[in-house]
Write a structure and sequence with these properties.
The protein is an all-beta fold. The chain has two domains: 112 residues, Jelly Rolls (Sandwich); 87 residues, Jelly Rolls. Helix content is 0%, strand content 55%. The chain has no helices and 22 strands. The strands form four sheets. Strands 1, 3, 4, 5, 8, 9, 10, 13 and 14 form a nine-stranded antiparallel sheet that branches. Strands 2, 15, 16, 17, 18, 19, 20, 21 and 22 form a nine-stranded antiparallel sheet that branches. Strands 6-12 form a two-stranded antiparallel sheet. Strand 19 and strand 20 form a beta hairpin. The relative contact order is 0.18.
Length: 224
């Protein structure tokens, strides 16, 4: 399966209108944003766990990165409520599920081969970063020489300008913004190639964006 595989082009998915696609495990469904591959894939998705659903224990040879959007995600290491951010490096494994149900934003098989960092950031944690002009807050969830992952908060009716020297990916976690005549509501996903800045305008409720500044595919990405 190929979905938004051309990394040289702007890609957008407004997930509120996207279909849920069943996974091999009962009660777990996905909204696909980016995909190269079949069931095992280099992929970015929104994943919904029904109450009591879980995957059997499995490995992540290419690494896994996720942000909990709603509910409580769980594995053998603990509970991760909405707002938690986790990086499980290549060769890690777990048995994920959710007793009460949850929704997560997840990226698979997109780690560098030498990225061994295991990261868990609880809601409200992370390094406070000097916000850009007009921004309310910016909180770094992960940063190394190759990428920066953060949560940016913008006030109501404010202009948004995110420089993009390396490649940019964003997910609207709360609120909304508009780019030209296109509205990005909660759950909307955007990916821009390097050099194409994000210029937009927040809606009346402001906006919180999960943002990754990084090459859209690392030169040393885990072989798939």
């Amino acid at each position: 399966m190929l979905l938004n595989e051309n990394l040289s082009r702007r890609a957008v998915v407004h997930t509120a209108g996207a279909p849920w696609v069943a996974s091999p495990s009962a009660g777990i469904e996905r909204r696909m944003l980016f995909r190269i591959g079949a069931e095992q894939a280099r992929a970015t998705s929104i994943v919904r766990y029904a109450p009591g659903s879980r995957f059997p224990r499995h490995l992540h040879p290419g690494g896994e990165e996720f942000l909990v959007l709603d509910g409580v995600f769980q594995d053998e290491r603990g509970d991760y409520p909405a707002g938690a951010y986790v990086r499980n490096p290549p060769a890690s494994g777990h048995a994920p599920g959710s007793d009460a149900g949850c929704i997560i934003f997840v990226k698979l098989w997109q780690f560098r081969r030498d990225d061994a960092a295991s990261v868990t950031v609880r809601p409200g944690e992370g390094r406070t970063r000097s916000p850009a002009e007009g921004q309310k807050t910016s909180r770094v969830l992960f940063e190394d020489d190759y990428e920066q992952v953060r949560l940016d908060e913008w006030p109501a009716d404010a202009p948004v300008h995110l420089p993009n020297p390396r490649g940019l990916e964003g997910l609207v976690v709360q609120g909304s913004f508009a780019q030209d005549e296109e509205r990005f509501a909660r759950g909307s996903w955007l990916r821009l190639p390097a050099g194409e800045d994000l210029r937009a305008h927040c809606g009346p409720e402001g906006a919180t964006l999960w943002v990754k500044s990084a090459p859209l595919l690392h030169a040393t990405v885990c072989a798939f």
